[in-house]
Amino acid sequence: MYFLGNIKDIHELDLTPTNVHIDSWLFKLYKLTGIAFVFLSILVSARLYSGHPMVCTETKELPEDLINAYCWMNSTFTVSLPKDGHTDNRLTTVGTEFYTTGSVKQKYHKYYQWFSLVLLLLSSLCYLPVYLWNRLERGKLELLILGLDSDAITESVKNARKKNLLHYLIKNLHTHKMYALVFFCCEVGVLFLIGAQRSFMNSFFEEELFMFYYKIVLDLIIGSKTTRSNMLSELFPKLTKCTFRMHGPTGELQVFNSLCLLPVNIVAEKVFTALWLWLNILLLVSLILLTSRLMAISFSAIRVYALMPKFRNAPQAKIRKLIQLMDFGDFFILKLILRKIDESICVELVSDLSEALFKK
Question: Transmembrane residues, as ranges (predicted)?
Answer without folding.
Answer: 29-49, 111-133, 178-196, 275-302
